[in-house]
Amino acid sequence: MLLICVRFSIVVASHGFSLFFFFGYLYVILSFFICV
Known about the structure:
The chain is an all-alpha fold.
């Protein structure tokens, strides 16, 4: 479970942050909710 959260964060950091800033930010929030 934790590995998935870390993986999501890495994917968002490398792809979402660069390509879709807003979408990436939402994805980070979603992944955080999934972690908790």
